[in-house]
Amino acid sequence: MTTNPPLRDGHGTLDQRNDDDDSRMKPQPLASSPTGIADAPKHNESPAPRASVEYDTPESYRKLDEVAVAGPVQNPEEGPIYRHESLEDARSRDQEYTREEAEAAARRAPKGQGSHPDAKQEREKPARGLEVSRLATQIYTVSYLILFSFFGTLARLGLQWLTDYAGAPVFPSVWFNFGGCVVMGFLSEDRKLFRHGWGTPTHEQQTKKAKQDEEAGGSGSDRAAVDLTAAKKAHLATKKTIPLYIGLATGFCGSFTSFSSFIRDAYLAASNDLTYGSTTTAPRNGGYSFMALLAVIIITVTASLSGLFTGAHLAIALEPVTPSLPYLTTRKLADRLAVFLACGCWVGAILLAAIPPADYWRGAATFALVFAPVGCLARFYASMWLNGLNPAFPLGTFAINVFGTAVLGMGWDLQHVPIGGVIGCQVLQGVEDGFCGCLTTVSTWVSELAALRRRHAWIYGGASVVASFAVMVAIMGGLRWSDGFEALKCVH
Question: Is 36 left (phi over 0), alpha (psi -120 to 50) or beta?
């Protein structure tokens, strides 16, 4: 008799349980499909009202920290006892599971089973329904990333203009970093928008059944709690393989927030050049500049972290009234429509930058939209290639934040020297707002800080800020303390 594989948690990793637990306390493990999507237990399986569509998600998608970490609130029911799982645990168990799967496949190969699915896979195949090819899944994911990079860039620029007014109490970059982290926290904790993960609201049905068993009391309440936890983990594992979710978390939130803008404001505060709200700076000594530097760092980091947990709390509070995305609309219409919209919007942005109805549009938005998808896609692939190398230090996010900060510093210097014209200044502004703004991210960064173990979080967060600020001082400081910054030739 074939045994079911171990239960997988929301990170796509193994959920180990003690062998001596009471069998009544153990829910039936959810079989994990080769795509990383958990299937419902076979003994409770009922014919689905419609064929489900599953994505053949590449294994490299697991290295995205936006989809690897669980929600910021790991105990939404506020139970007296719960298990906290860090990002390091998720990465280590995922690597162990992948290694065990490879070893098992190697052992089966000499027996002639390497090229043929086993009996269990054959039995599961009809239940899984239709499967989107891996190429189509990647095309849908890239299309969503391109499309939502436009929305994130426009949201960031719009909020920046809206919050830059006379007498503003705080610099504008705080607002879009806080707002993007709120959306990120909501998406990470939400269990309603994508509840049709298997084609039927499996999570909602299991949640209602578990709550009914819990209200009945007795020994069944313990099992209900375990079943409810398993249902939530299976839902998370399914949700984080959906291209639309990756587009929202990686594309929109990552483009809405900007780590390079945060470090730029930190340097400008230290050099007494941070102006906002149509104010001018007054001369001050180095001690006050150091306090201004600390203020920018403290306000941005604390506001972003609080925004992450605010979004998670909103998702928990609004769960009873949060609507669910229609299954057929999302899987069969939105995915295909996103491909045409992404290509069309990008071509449209290029045309508007080349032949603008008004020259002001170039520096304000169109050049930023031209470069936004490039930065978003670069961040996406860098995270896939580098984030899994060290579970305790997300190297991909660190590298893109430092590199994007360096590019923004170089663009800022070229804008503030007496060379070039208006068009060159607008192109550089588009690189800063579009490419650098979408390449660097605060939402993913604070999600990693919240998920890492405390010591690793302090090391990773401190290294990111110190390294990026040092690069910015080396690039912008040379011009600032030699020739000084010239006035911009373009308005932004």
Answer: left
- First and final C-alpha spacing in the chain: 68
| Confidence category of residue 87, pLDDT binned at 50, 70, 90 | confident
Residues 203 and 10 sit within 8 Å (Cβ to Cβ): no
Q: Is the pLDDT assigned to residue 49 strictly greater than 50? A: no
CB 57 within 8 A of CB 137: yes
* CB-CB neighbours of 319 under 10 Å: 14
Burial of 178 (0-12, 13-18, 19+ CB in 10 A): buried
Residue range 250-284, pLDDT digits in tens: 999 999 999 999 999 999 999 988 887 666 778 88
Residues whose CB falls within 8 Å of the CB of residue 326, separated by 6 or more in sequence, listed in order: 196
Contact 314, 190 (CB under 8 A): no
Long-range contacts for 457-466 (Cβ within 8 Å, ≥24 apart)?
459/392, 459/393, 460/392, 460/393, 460/394, 460/398, 461/301, 463/393, 463/398, 464/259, 464/397, 464/398, 464/401, 464/402, 465/263, 465/266, 465/297, 465/301
- Rg, Å, the chain Cα set: 25
Cα within 13 Å of Cα(71), Cβ side: 28
Pairing, β 53-55 against β 130-132: parallel
Ordered DSSP codes for 210-223? HHHHHHH-TTHHHH
Q: What is the pLDDT of residues 135-169, one digit of tens each?
A: 888 999 999 999 999 999 999 999 999 998 888 88
Residue ranges per structural domain of the chain: 56-69+130-197+242-483
In degrees, to the nearest 5, what angle opens at C-alpha 34 toward C-alphas 248 and 106?
A: 135
Residue-wise pLDDT for 360-401, tens only, equals 777 788 999 999 999 999 999 999 999 888 889 999 999 999
Binning pLDDT at 50, 70 and 90, where does residue 7 land?
A: very low
Task: Choose among 147, 178, 190, 410: nearest CA to 306.
Answer: 178
Residue in the structure block whose two tokens are 């919209």: 341
Rounded Cα gap, residues 422 and 415, in angstroms: 10
Q: Whose CA is closest to 173, among 252, 251, 246, 267?
A: 267
d(CA 181, CA 187): 10
Across 1-10, 337-346, 357-366, least confident range: 1-10
The Cα–Cα gap between 362 and 364 comes to 6
Q: With 0.70 as the threshold, say if the pTM is over it.
A: yes
Buried b (16+ CB within 10 A) or exposed e, 84-106: ebbbbbbbebbeebeeeeeeeee
**What pLDDT is recorded for position 211?**
58
Cα(254)–Cα(380) distance, integer angstroms = 10
